[in-house]
Amino acid sequence: MALPKQNPQSLKAWSKLQQLAKTEDLSIQKLFEKDAKRFEKYSLQFDDFLFDYSKHRITDEVKSELLNLAKEAGLKEAIQSYFNGDLINETENRAVLHTALRQSSQSNAQLPESQLAKQALNQMQTFVTKVHSGEWKTYAGEKITDVVNIGIGGSDLGPQMIVDALQYYKQDIRCHFISNVDGDPIHELLKTLDPERTLFVIVSKSFTTQETLTNANTIRKWFLKQTTEESIKHNFVAVSTNIEAVQKFGIATNNIFPMYDWVGGRFSLWSTAGLSIALTVGMPIFKELLEGAATMDLHFKETDFDKNIPVLTALISVWYNNFLNAESEAVIPYTNYLHKLAPYLQQASMESNGKSIDRNAQPVDYQTGNIVWGEPGTNAQHAFFQLIHQGTKLIPADFIGFKKALYKDQTHHDILMANFFAQTEALLKGKTRADVKRELKNQGLSTAQIEELIAFKVFDGNKPTTSLLIDKLTPKSLGKLIAMYEHKIFVQGVIWNIFSFDQWGVQLGKELATRVLEDISSDKIINQHDQSTDALLKAYKN
Predict the structure, then answer these.
(1) How many distinct helices (H) and strands (E) make up the chain?
(2) What is the pTM of this model?
(3) Model confidence over 66-108: pLDDT tens digits?
(4) 149 exposure class (CB count in 10 Å sphere: 0-12, 13-18, 19+)
(5) Catalytic position from the list 211, 351, 375, 486
(6) Is 351 an active-site residue?
(7) Cis before residue 198, ω within 30 degrees of 0?
(8) Cα 234 from Cα 200, distance rounded (Å)
(9) What are the C-alpha distances in Å from 507 to residues 23, 81, 241, 269?
(10) Which is catalytic among the residues 403, 510, 538, 541?
(11) pLDDT of 509
(12) What is the pLDDT of residue 200?
C-alpha cells in the first residue's frame, strides 16, 4: 500500500488551523491562567519519559484540529504501511524498515526482513564477543584496544552520537571516528594508534563512497608500512553490500557484515552499521538500545494520537512551521553526553524532509523541512539563548533532561537541572516592564537611569518549549529518544505529502565534485563551469 497523495492545504483541518493561527489568543501564560489543569491535559507519562508540551502556543481548539489534520492526512494508514514493509520509499522502490532491526518489536517480527536482521545481529554478537574476550587477535597476536569507524553520513553520525552518549557504559576499547575527507584529522589520529592493536571498521553500503574509500585507502597505506597485505584480514572488517569490492580491498569474506536496501543510511545505527557501537559498549548494551527503540515503536504504532508522543511532537512542529512561520527548532539536551544529538538530528530530519516536490511530483507551495540545531545546556545558555529570549525569531525548543546523574554527583546535577527548569520558565514568562523597573529601582538607580535601561531589559516571554524529563540516561532510554525523533520525522513527511526516505538532493554535488577533481588533477581546466568556479579553480591551481 502506497502513502496517500493529497495536498495538505486541501484538507479541512489545514484551513481551520490557518484561521486559528490568526484568531486564537496564543499567550501561553493566559492559557495557564484560564486552565488550572493545563499541565495535566498537556503532558504524558510513558515509561520513564515525562513529556510536557503545556508551554506551547496551543489551545484546545488548535490541538483538536492538529489531530484532525493527522487523521485527514491518512496518518493511521501510513503508519500501518510503514510497519508492514510496504514500498513507501517510492522513488527508490524500497520499503522503510529500520524498525525491523529492533528485534523485540512485536509489530514486524514475522517480516522476512526481521529474520535477516536477526541473522546479522547474531553475526555481530559472535564477532563482538570474540573481540572483547581476546579470542580475536590482530596480525601481531594482540588484543584489540582501539576501533576506528570509517564512514560518512549515517555511517558516522548515528554511531558516533550513540558511542558518545553511552560513554558511561563503554568497555575497555577506545573508539574513534573518521568521516571527513580532510586528510589532516586522519594523520593526527594515526599518530596516536598502534597498528598491532587497532581494528578498522569500514562502513559503506556501496563501497564506492568517495570520502570513505579515500580515507580507507589512506589508512590502508599507513597500515601496510608496518606489515603485509595478509594482515588486513586480521585488522579490517567491512559493513557493505559490495562483496567484490571489499574482497579486492583485502578484507576476508567472513569479515563482511551485511547491509540492506530497506534501511536508509541515516536510520542505520540499529543495524550492522552500528558495529562500532557494539564494539565500544558491548552487545548486551547494544541490545538494550534496540529494546528501547522497540518500546517506542510499539507506543507509536498502537497509541491513540492524542496520547502518542511522536505524533504530538510532530504535530506541534507542523503547527509552528506551517501556521506560525517558525522555520527552525532547537534541541537542547541537559547532558553533555548528548552533545552530538543535534548534528545527528540535523541529518535525520533535514535530509529526510528537506523536499520541495510532493508525492504527486508537483512543486509544493508551503513550508516543509525544519532547520534543526542546538547544543547542550548549560553551554547553550552562554551562546545562543540571547537570540531565543530577545531576538526577533520564533524558535520552539526541545529541552531534554534527566532526573538522575550517572555519576551521582548531586551538587553538579542539581545546578544543571535548576538551569533546565529556570530556562523554560524564563522563556515562558519573560520579564515585564514593571518587573524591570522595580528591579532597577531596588538597585538604587535614578529615574533617568531606569528610563535609559528599561527597554533593553524587558523580555517578551511567550517562547514555546517542550520539556522531556527522563529518569536516567540508559541505553533503553536513549533508544526510545532516538526512535521518538525518527517517528516524528515520518509523521511530518506524511502530513507534508513528501517522500521522507530518499535524498536525491545530495547527489548533484557529488557528481560535480568528480568533474572538478578531473580539472584539479589535469594541467588545465577541461570541464565547463560557471565564471566564479572557473576563477576559483585557477586561483587554487596557481
Answers:
(1) 23, 11
(2) 0.96
(3) 999 999 999 999 999 999 999 999 999 999 999 999 975 444 5
(4) buried
(5) 351
(6) yes
(7) no
(8) 10
(9) 43, 28, 20, 22
(10) 510
(11) 84
(12) 98
Supply the DSSP string of 514-535, one letter for each residue.
HHHHHHHHSSS--S---HHHHH
Give the CA angle between residues 264, 267, 268 to the nearest 5°.
Answer: 80
Is 327 annotated as catalytic?
no
Which residue, among 254, 263, 227, has the nearest Cα to 99 in the 3D structure?
263
Fold of the CATH domain 8-73+303-426+464-500: Rossmann fold (3.40.50)
Active site residue 61: no
Report residue 291 as a C-alpha cell.
Answer: 529494546
Instruction: Determine which one of 12, 187, 382, 538 is catalytic.
Output: 382
For the segment 269-299, what is each residue's pLDDT rounded down to a tens digit?
999 999 999 999 999 999 999 999 999 999 9
Q: Which one, of 40, 486, 10, lies nearest residue 269 by Cα?
A: 486
Residues 6+ apart with CB under 8 A from 477: 48, 49, 292, 470, 471
Alpha-carbon separation of residue 176 from 44, 340, 345, 355 (angstroms):
38, 14, 20, 33
Q: What would be the CATH architecture of the domain defined by 98-287?
A: 3-Layer(aba) Sandwich (3.40)
- Distance of alpha carbon 165 from alpha carbon 337, whole angstroms: 4
What residues contact residue 226 under an 8 Å CB cut-off, 6+ apart? Answer: 195, 196
